[in-house]
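Work through this:
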Amino acid sequence: MPLRNRRGLLLILTLSAALCACNAVPSMDNPPTEPVPGYVTDMQGFERFIAARPTPEQFRQRYPDVQLVLPGELATKELRMNNSRYFAELDEEGRITGGKFK
C-alpha cells in the first residue's frame, strides 16, 4: 500500500475513534458524578445519567438539590413543577433504571 494511502487510512481511523469517544454513553460502573446545582433543567443530560444506571448515592452526588424518593419511602403529596423531586425505579441490584418527577 502506498504511503499516501496509509496516511489517509490512519487519518480516517483516528477521526472515527475521536467521534466514537465523543458520543460514548457513560457506563453503569462509572456514571458522571460531578455535582449539578439546583433542580434538573437539562433533561437530555439527566436521561443520559439515568441510562447509566447510577446508584442512589451517585444520584445524590450528581443532583444534591433534587430529593430522591426510593421505592417504599414516604413522601408528601405536594405538587412540584420544578423537577426537584424524583421518584426512582430500581433494578434488582439497587440501581436506578428510571422514574418520574412529581
The chain has a mean pLDDT of 83.
